[in-house]
Amino acid sequence: MRDMQIPSDHPLLLQIVDDLAAHGWSQQNIFLPEALTLELAAECRERAAEGELSPAAVGRGSTQEVREGVRGDHIQWLEAGESAACDRYLGLMDSLRQALNRGLFLGLEDYESHFALYPPGAFYLKHVDRFRDDDRRTVSAVLYLNQGWLPEYGGQLRMFLKEGVDYDVQPKGGCLVVFLSGEIPHEVLPSTRERLSLTGWFRRRGDDPF
Ligand code: OGA
Ligand code: MN
What CATH number has the domain bearing residue 26? Predict the structure, then answer.
């Protein structure tokens, strides 16, 4: 089993469950211990330096393509067992998955996630996180890895909560944002600095029997 599970009734997790139930999203500014945030940031930079990150694609299956005019980040998908830091992150997210299932009966089966690095100037235009032909992605989670981030760097996550109401999250290290994947359109504004995160999706079982 993963080595950094926390009880699924931990107050931080219950707060996220309550926020999602009430508003469809949650922001926890101090979700990750600083030491782990630093380790994950270092790992993201190392992977980038080793050429392991690739330009992110838009869409799914045969219609997938890289379109820098839509999204300009570079990503690498995570697998379990690659590093202690990533396994601790995956363990925490598994605890959150259990808390969401217990509190909201969402039936979330798994979690897919990737490192993302936005070079200066990169952005991701307004979108929702659910594919047209695949509605398994149910809850999105973005964990930021940037130390000493200042608002003037840009790079905010802008969420369109309802008609005429939007909200900006500063991508500060250790902050976790969670939201319902199909319901909250959002965008990433361009920044003047490299912007690092771990982004993932809790998924429900698909209808496809294979
Ligand atoms: C995404 C996304 C938000 C962020 O990868 O789908 O919307 O703040 N990321 O990085
Ligand atoms: Mn998104």
Answer: 2.60.120.620
